[in-house]
Amino acid sequence: MKEKVAYMEKMDKAMEGVLEYLKRKGKLTELENDILLATQICQSSPFDSQAAKKKIMEFNAKYREVCSSILATPGIKTKPLFDMKDEEVWESLWIQVEALCGRELGEIERKG
Length: 112
What we know:
6 helices
């Protein structure tokens, strides 16, 4: 899982800012709570691939527009969840977390 560690180290500052904001915020919206729960799954050791797959399927249903935009991103390859290795499941969930953080950042900026 060296790629996982390297990928997390490269997490951009905007995403870090959103996560810090959410950790300090009192009452969380459903989106904010989903971001934190998915982040916890990504950071769990050992990685719980089944929990990650469940969360990916939940996000696919709940945040269709976000998932559609991920699929439309150049370089994103799709593969059935149950054919993925643990590293691919982790990466898929993390990509969703990044996209949801982008959505949350937009909402924070609109309110601010």
